[in-house]
Amino acid sequence: MARPKRFKTAKALYDAWTQYKAWCDSRPAMTHGFSSKKSEFVSKKLQRSVTYTVEGFCAWAGISRQAFYETYMAAFPDTFTCMREECEVDARMKFELGIIDSRLAPLWMSRHGYGVKAEDVHPEAQGDDPITAALKEEAGNGLL
Fold first, then answer.
1. For the chain, what is the total number of helices (H) and then of strands (E)?
2. Phi, psi at residue 90, to the nearest 5°?
3. Which position has the higher pLDDT, 44 or 58?
4. What is d(CA 21, CA 36) in angstroms, rounded to the nearest whole number?
5. Neighbours of 57 (CB within 10 A)
6. CB within 8 Å of 86: residues ≥ 6 apart
7. pLDDT tens digits for 56-87?
8. Strands (DSSP E) found in 12-136
9. What are phi and psi of 28, to 5 degrees?
10. How far apart are CA 23 and CA 27, in angstroms?
11. How far is residue 13's CA from residue 4's CA, in Å, rounded to a whole number?
12. What confidence tens digit (pLDDT) does each residue in 112-137 have?
């Protein structure tokens, strides 16, 4: 027999999502450093934010990811779409504000359908740098 739904309405699901976002935005974190002024190690508790994910919400709410997708994606599609969009916007904002290291952008944003597009640049299309051009010119003049 299946378990009863944890969230009976779309509003209940969205209210829980709102609580999860508040939890993500105020995660306590301990930082440690050396104070040269006091010549000792110091620790401080700070509030840090983590990126919103549907998977994180499932863990926070105590629901398996599979059960969440099977149950709530079909039952409350508008709320689910809103959650996915808020995850994408949150990740983009945190990259743009420098909260998340920009080197992780391809990894994170690929989850939302973005990709890294490398430009094909042929060596002939790209001009020689000044040193290479000078060496080629000298070689052409028979000086090298």
1. 6, 2
2. -60, -45
3. 58
4. 37
5. 22
6. 17, 21, 52
7. 999 999 999 998 998 898 899 999 999 999 99
8. 27-35, 40-48
9. -75, 140
10. 6
11. 14
12. 777 666 555 555 556 666 777 777 77
